[in-house]
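It would be a great kindness if you could assist me with a short task in structural biology. Thank you for your consideration; the sequence and its tokens are set out here.
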Amino acid sequence: MDDNDFLQSLAKGGIQVGELAKIYYPGGRDIETLDYDLSIEQTNEELAKENAVIYEAAIRYQNCFIRVDVLEKVGNRLNLIEVKSKSWSPDTEFFTKRNPTILSKWQKYLYDVAFQYWVMKKAFPEYRIEPYLMLIDKSQEATIDGLHQHFKVVDDHGRFKVKVKPGTTAGDLGEQILKPVHVAEEVLLILEGKGRDPQSELEAKGFDQWVDGLANHLQENKKYRVRVGEKCKNCEYRIDPKSLGHDEKSGFQECWSKAKQWKEKDFEKPHVFDIWNERSMQKKFLDKDVYHMEELIPGMLPANPNHLYTQTEWDNDERKTVQIMKQTGHHGEEEAVLAGLFHEMDQWKYPLHFIDFEAVLAAIPFHKGLKPYDFIPFQFSCHTMYEDGSVVHRADWIEETPGKLPSIPFIRKLKECLEGDEGTVFRYHNFENTVLNKMKELIQARQPDDEKGLIDFIDTLVKGGEREMVDQYEMIKKYYYSRIMGGSNSIKKVLPAMLTESPKLQEIYSQPYSGLYLKEKVFYKEDPETGLAISPYKLLNSVGYGIPDYEEGDKVIEQESISEGGSAMMAWSRLQFDDLDETARQAVLQSLYEYCELDTLAMVMIHQHWNYLKS
């Protein structure tokens, strides 16, 4: 997923950032060929010069081969510059406070540079080599508008490339937002074997033997013996065996089969990795050879399994225990709901408003005065439910004009939508609260004529306000569980679970639904193989035009815990480039409207099911 071209180019600006780095090191030769020998030959031609700049420089030592993003030769000094779209600020630390070792979140970046440095040092012992990470400076505001327009992402026969605006120089780009950070100290620590606790016996032998050992395994096409553990929890190759097609394999299954002699049935049992919000699994479970939920004896359970369904609400440990007992069949299969939910519902004022935001966090800011990875909310949807149970899709707003900063118009439109009554407003998780607080800061900085009214409006909705938004995610966490949700409280998992559980939702949504943009859409459909409701998100049309489907886009973005609007973020980012024809632009907009409409309709469905349970 780290190498997903679309994610890097639009959500995180990866390949755009690579091109931006070249502008800051102008006049270089780009080694474009993928042929090993030819790329090395072209690189050496440049290194024969007194001074040179090389993009994608190719260097080989024995059977180790690297491509350096930017290699700057100044006499006898080689500056190795590895470009990343990772955010950084002048007060960023790479070391832990004790020992010191490399902070875990920086390890993959710094070990990458250390390996490149190692290869270069072996290949060119006569040179002085200085290693750098080139990172996005999140403390630096963009000083020009339309910075991103200098780096257009284009689809070149299925591969995304960046087309730099002809004649662009560093002087055209304002203050530099991409900064080289010298990392010689960190690299030296890694090469000495002190960067982290070794993660394999081979790594423990020292950097030289580690690289040699891995290179030998690669040459012999032999897999190194895997040490399974808590690190496997988020393995991207962990795939449900039932979803594997003919001749398809799961990397997770392959590793665990060898390490633990597991058979196919072992992978079908609920794993301790799937316990919601569980941490420190290595010490709690894995070191005791406990891998499945069914193996948890009473003393290992997070909470007492008795009386879980008679209390007012669950704390986190009780909620974990509910999941374990339900998924292992020790408690009944029926969904669980606590009376505390109904007490909360009695406090809510009609009409009820269900809102969802979409926002982009761009590495290269779209607008002057914004910093890298600042929130830009570009869309919201609102469904409203009245006391008689009727539902109206009240609003679905997007800033459609490319190049226009949507942040303040977004708040004005939201205010217009919600200010007509005192009804309770619902969000799903913390995202909307975070965005509103960020917009308050932006409004205070930009001081529009209606500053006071907008800030007063925001203050009513955020935490502590008199109309503080109710978080449906928190309601689910404290009061509701269905075993179909597994260990997830994501709306993408909760919604199909409730559709499967609820006769009321099945009755309503087996009939066609129409809102502002979704028309005549049947959202209750049963999977004939599993008997479970198909996720309504899978029933949406594909975006097209190079944008990944919602499930794929959200899966990638979830790795960064940004939001569940991964594909929406990518789609709107794509609209900011002026090379889309009108047909494509309208199709992408329609898809964005439909997706956000479903997000708030999903919240309505959750409430409708709770109303059914309460009645």
Summary: Residues 1-12, 552-564 have pLDDT under 50 and may be disordered.
